[in-house]
Specification:
Rossmann fold; two-stranded antiparallel sheet; 6 helices; 42% helix; five-stranded parallel β-sheet; alpha/beta; 145 residues; 7 strands
Length: 145
């Protein structure tokens, strides 16, 4: 079996692996979007997939915590206000078990948030809704893989 066939097989099994042209395979960053608004989830997923991110979406913090038990992710984008546990509460739980996962908060009320709880929850960036999608992509691309 030639190397292209092997890479194609790997790409099929691992959506994070992308074969680009003649070069070696490229790892794609896995992003988890947690937001109770389906329109936000859909816009982010569609936009980020255009930039070759692998995107998982869930509607609430409990679903995010369950997904993280089964699926590894590289970065999390989480809404602050959601039914059930808040985005901040979810981030605290994630940070306890996976402190190396970068997280950004997406919220319509950025001025109401104090920096100390964000740091304690492992949140390193806040994006105000409506957010600049290009700035979001730039932040994601700047993160180490």
């Amino acid at each position: 079996m030639d190397s292209r066939a092997v890479l194609t097989a790997l790409q099929w099994e691992e959506p994070r692996l992308m074969v680009s042209g003649q070069g070696p395979p490229v790892l794609r960053r896995r992003v988890l979007v947690v937001d109770d608004e389906s329109a936000i989830r859909e816009v982010l997923a569609t936009f980020l997939e255009e930039y070759e991110f692998v995107v998982h979406t869930v509607p609430d913090g409990a679903s995010a915590l369950a997904l993280l038990q089964a699926e590894p992710v590289d970065v999390i984008l989480v809404d602050l206000h959601m039914p059930g546990i808040s985005g901040l509460e979810m981030a605290v739980e994630v940070h306890k078990t996976n402190p190396s996962i970068p997280m950004a908060l997406i919220t319509g009320t950025p001025m109401a948030i104090q920096p100390a709880p964000l740091r304690q929850a492992g949140i390193s960036r806040v994006f105000a809704k409506p957010f600049d999608l290009e700035a979001l992509v730039a932040w994601l691309q700047a993160l180490p893989l």
